[in-house]
Design brief:
The complex is a heterotrimer.
Chain A: H1 2-24, E1 45-46, E2 62-67, H2 82-88, E3 96-98, E4 104-106, E5 109-116, E6 119-124, H3 138-150, E7 161-168, E8 171-176, H4 183-186, H5 197-206, E9 218-224, E10 228-233, E11 248-253, H6 257-265, E12 271-272, H7 280-284, E13 289-304, H8 314-323, H9 326-334, E14 338-340, H10 366-376, E15 381-387, H11 390-405, E16 408-414, H12 420-425, E17 431-437, H13 446-450, H14 466-477, H15 482-499, E18 502-515, E19 522-523, E20 528-529
Parallel strand pairs in A: 1-13, 2-11, 2-12, 15-16, 15-17
Antiparallel strand pairs in A: 3-4, 5-6, 6-8, 7-8, 9-10, 10-11, 12-18, 13-17, 13-18, 14-18, 19-20
Helix pairs in contact in A: 8-10, 9-11, 14-15
Chain B: H1 2-6, H2 11-16, H3 23-33, H4 35-52, H5 54-57, H6 60-65, H7 91-127, H8 129-143, H9 147-158, H10 162-189, H11 192-199, H12 204-240, H13 252-259, H14 271-295
Helix pairs in contact in B: 3-14, 4-7, 4-14, 7-8, 7-10, 7-12, 8-10, 9-10, 10-12, 11-12, 12-13, 12-14, 13-14
Chain C: H1 2-28, H2 34-39, H3 45-55, H4 61-73, H5 87-122, H6 127-141, H7 144-158, H8 171-200, H9 203-211, H10 215-253, H11 258-268, H12 271-299, H13 301-306
The chains are: A alpha+beta, B mainly alpha, C mainly alpha.
Amino acid sequence: MKKNLVLSLLLVLVMMATIIGGCGGSGKKDDASAKPAATVKNPPKLAKPTTTVDPKANLNADITVVQQLDMVSFDPINTSDLSNRYIITNIYSYMFAQDEYLGNVPELVKSFKRLNDSTWQFEIYKGVKTHDGKDLTADDVVYSLQRTQKGTAIGALFKPVDKISKIDDSTIQITTFGPYPALPTALTHVACGIVPKAYAEKADASKDWSNPIGTGRYKFKSRVIGDSVVMERFDGYFNQADKALNKSLTFKIIPEGSGRTIAVETKKADINVVFDTVDYDRVLGNANLQLWEHPSQLVWHLGYDNTNKNFSNKLVRQAINYAVDRKALMEVGHNGHGTVVFNNATFAPTVLGAINNPDNKYSYDPEKAKALMKQAGVSGFDTEIIVFRDEAERMAVLVQSYLKAIGINATVKRIENAVFAQTIQGHKAPMFITSWGCYWDPDMFLARRFTKAGIGGVNRVWYQNPALDVLIDKARTISFENKPRAEVYGEIQKFLADEAPEADLYVNNMYALANKDLKGVEINVEMPHNYYKLHY
Amino acid sequence: MDEAVKKYTTRKEFFKQYKKKSRLQETWNRFLRNKMAVIGLFIFIFIVLVAITAPIIANYDTEAIKINVPNRLKAPSTEHIFGTDEMGRDIMARIVHGARISLVVGFASVALALFIGGALGAIAGYYGGKIDDVIMRCMDVFLCLPDVLLALAIVAAFGTNLVNMTIAIGLSFTPKFSRVVRSAVMTVRGIEYVEAARAIGSTNTHIITNHVLINCFGPIVVQVTLYVASAILTISALSFIGLGIQAPIPEWGNMLASGRAYMRDHAYIVMAPGLAIFVTILSLNLLGDGLRDALDPRLK
Amino acid sequence: MFKFIVRRLLAMIPVILAVTFVVFTIMYFTPGDPTNTILGNEWTEDASAKLKTELGLDQSFLVQFFNYTKNLIQGDFGMSYITRAPVSEQLLARFPNTLKVVAGAMLFCVGLGVPIGVFSGVKPYSLFSNFTMVVGLLGVSLPIFWLGLLLILLFSVQLGWLPSSGIDGFASLILPSVALGANYMANIMRTTRSSMLEVIRQDYIRTAKAKGVNARNVVLNHALQNAMMPTVTVIGMNIGALLGGVVLTETVFSIPGTGRLLVEAINKRDTPTVLGCLVIMAVCVAVSNLVVDIVYAYMDPRIKAQYGGGKG
């Protein structure tokens, strides 16, 4: 009997050893930093907008898209979450659609003109059909936009908007408080989805938006909450020159990064639009997959509370900008996939008028940082770095060590993202790391982030300066043309490089992982988009 | 008869063979005979020692916390026994420091549960009647919520820091403890010496503390051991789903969670923390089982 | 028997109410302002005040609890702060997935645990029995989430036999059920084994053997029923633990169930959804306890007789 006990113990140990050994088998790979470029079979391709379609292509495929988070609601004004936007923009049409750089390209608008600096008139296409067979009229457009205005999701983007009214059955008029060149871009915001008045009223009354009616390229078919959303091509779409190139779209929700990659590997999905760079090396070696990349306009930055006495001295703020190694931070945050940005105004490199490293001022120079601290007469202080996301947390721990070298003792504190806003409000975030997604037009974010108007909103660094306000206003009013405005934006960046209200670090790359045969993959500076163009 | 007596030179020696060894001595001997239990004890003592000497084994700041980007994701080697994690930190250093947290929270939360639950259970068991009913009904309500969920609710409401977690886990064990203490107390309550003590006029409190609780010692010790295992499991579980100890503080559960994304190509990153949890709980279970068997009244 | 069931059902109601009260109280004292979550970047004082009145957050605690319970009875779990849609919508969509995993785990537990326990109890000193004893001991100590990760590593990553996430089809339920059920299967196995051991040693078994009844009959007809009692108790006690563990399983295997909904809701500070999940799980535990009590009573002839279930 004792013999049996010992025997069985041995048996179990052997079993466990094989399992653990078997599992760990793949762990003998080289560490991530050694990337032998010569053996990379399948380098990532830059995703450019699709302009031509092969006449022999299959335009009736059922495409499955996997993403990380579930959508929230089919009500356009419910939320600005990305996971929601890129699903519902297939159901609803917009006055203007987003282009590659989050600028605007007309969609429902046939033409538009400006009667004067604050009056715009937009002509809507005739014969736009809704999914239930009716015609879209200017009344629907006006109703939708007024609803958007009343809601809170659009926020500051509609602040300059005054009245929205109908001129005739296919023309609407929007008046603004003062010149607002960014109005067309503002109309690309997800909350501006055009919903037929009849459906919107019904859905609001019954608080049930689960069976949306729109005018977009797809008709809603079904949804399993937490799992999937299915939609089918709408053959009555008004713009047949730019219709859906596939028969149906199915969005599957897979929260786990590797799980999404596996889904594409096993052909359960056609494209993964939230690619986890952990799998970067693995997918490059896989000939059945194609990784697409695109620079983003998501600026990761280290912010600090400018009203906090520790950061009130400009020299200290500049010192911080010299103390951090942006390249290493990008390595730790996004495995090195991105572009380093030396800026202090949250300008991504592809934004209008962006200058990377205005006046070539900053670099990774800990000695200079220490000298600046000395010059400021600050020997050191204690502070806290607030984060609420994994990448940010990794970066914060690294920043902590950089700051320590110049005498600043920072502790890293992780909070839930839902309370980030109130932590900022309560001046409880002396330093923080997060990302900001830029629109192509800086007017959409400069005032909100660096002026008094943004305090209590997204001016998280509590910075304000009358000189800057003048410049921002100038950039908006100087012209409706890009070139003059870009020059003023250059001035603004130089001004803020000296003021250093925050330390921008890098923009990460956007990726999409697809089946090697999938065509029509487009990525904008925020997410892969235009899924209607996917085909085989 | 004469021969039997001849074996012993004195009456004292003769009666020695019938002298009852102290209960503690007997129990301890029985425990020692159980090989598995002894192994469990040794493993657990080893873990405690590792936790105590953690700062000597590996420096907290330089090895367990500091990010070392070039050192990322290195496989196990002579330099890093368990490899390095996604931030370049030595996994062994983090495991060793993580042991401190797990053990401290484990013991503290069970101590809290014992204190509160024990008091409630003792009162309920001793006084019986209406008091017993009321207290037990309250405890029943809490039993309807699985402990992980109750701990989750408390953490969800009050935030994730060490103190809250200890309180949350402690509170979730309180009902179970109260039951254990209550039944132990009820068993002992009727025994003669309690009646005798009452007869000579000891106050109720005196009886509870001096007679009743002492005799409940056995079952309570067993439960404490098993619940510490459970508490350690709960804290790693909560940290795993992100509602427990947050990075960069090394805790076995959150190490598993953050290493998971890299699991496909670097499987070792989830081996060590998981093994640590497993071995700790195993040793405590063995210990608890052994204690339970040793204290089993049926073998007396 | 019927009276017994009815009595227990009625006793369940105040318990559920009390649990709701406890959970509601805990969530009520959550520090922080839910309007921050809902309004996010567009938070202003006015919008906040307006929203608070709309959601009824400016009323007293008791009034809020009363309203909540009143709605709960009618099946209205309130509106989610995040989706602005009824919480019941999410719960109804996700709960079946949780049930599937729990059912799978129970099947695994009982379907494997009991027979193995019985066999090793019948032949206590065989290699098989010792083996199961060791496995049982180890199984009880395995953390669910680690086992889940190991299973994924072995069966999904290395061998590619089974899917590692999601819930399409039977294959995707296998790994989660095993991960969730392993602890309790080990428990059940050990309990069944030891109670079989005890029962087999009893006199009446020896008598039956002596009378010449064949071994199998002895086990099935005589020993099993009596040995089952502790096992049924253990199964009952474990259902609550299973519901706690399902949260972990759903996280590891990315299953869209109530457990993960709870974790997501906690992260987003969506109190109504958190409340809804906790209440539903508590109800589950209460109901399953009731079922176990009934089964237990049915099996125990003493209780049966007491309630007139047997012959007069």
